[in-house]
């Protein structure tokens, strides 16, 4: 199959490479760009382990073709924080025990990031609904919801202090 010139910005870094248009974004990220935070889970968009933020929307990268992502701005879990400077969501997932095995965590945090952009002051019901496309087999969700709500409170407190 013919390859296409593919440009994408991943976690603030511009990348250019040749890909097959039918290649899935998750495979380009993991195998060609070495961005391994998003995980390959179900490959049918049901589990959300592959969730990334693309052009300001949560997408499941296992169902996005490279051709669809050409020119996109993609943020993964790696783009949200560093080991020395965790994003508030990463910190709250840690503090509120919002993870166990960690397989779903990158997708959960990336989805929660976009959820809090869309709704900075969510209710518990808003969080449960907003995160419903991401599945976890370990935690029972209660601590994930607590972590997202605590993140919202922390982000709102920082915003209020800055005003």
TrEMBL record:
Pfam families: Fer2, Fer2_2
Protease recorded as keyword: no
GO molecular function: 2 iron, 2 sulfur cluster binding; anaerobic carbon-monoxide dehydrogenase activity; metal ion binding
SUPFAM superfamilies (UniProt xref): 2Fe-2S ferredoxin-like, CO dehydrogenase ISP C-domain like
InterPro entries tied to this protein: 2Fe-2S-bd, 2Fe-2S-bd_dom_sf, 2Fe-2S_ferredoxin-like_sf, 2Fe-2S_ferredoxin-type, Beta-grasp_dom_sf, Diverse_Oxidoreductases
Record's keyword terms, sorted: 2Fe-2S, Iron, Iron-sulfur, Metal-binding, Oxidoreductase
Top EC group: oxidoreductase
EC number from the UniProt entry: 1.2.7.4
Location of the 2Fe-2S ferredoxin-type domain: 4-80
Name of the protein in its database record: Carbon-monoxide dehydrogenase small subunit
Species the sequence originates in: Amorphus orientalis
